[in-house]
Amino acid sequence: MTIYLRNRRCRCVRCRTRGLMGAAILITLGLLFLLDEYRLFYFDNSWPVLLIVIGLMIFAARSGSTEGHVQPLWMGGMPPQGQGPAEPQQTGPSPHQGGDPHR
Predict the structure, then answer these.
(1) 13, 59 in Cβ contact below 8 A?
(2) Which of 18, 64, 67, 91 is the most exposed place for a label (fewest CB within 10 A)?
(3) Residue 28: Cβ within 10 Å count
(4) Does the residue 54 lie in any domain?
(5) What pLDDT does 84 receive?
(6) Domain extent at residue 55
(7) pTM of the model
């Protein structure tokens, strides 16, 4: 089992979800203050919503898939490979390695 360490450059689901925690808290606080300003819900009654959002984000971050996860470089992780097509593997002898050139 490999130790999971968050990598800001990784594009796996778990790393991306952890990066959204701050944004989710700020958006939730903004909505709660907006609802308080319009007197729809008062902040002192609606602050548990903030705890629920934090809990949901933690759950999403911990249960997210680590498929394609790249460990940080200082941990021995490899930088992501280019998106271009891979070189085809040759199993037989190459025509430049000798043999009959008329085949």
Answers:
(1) no
(2) 91
(3) 19
(4) yes
(5) 45
(6) 26-66
(7) 0.58
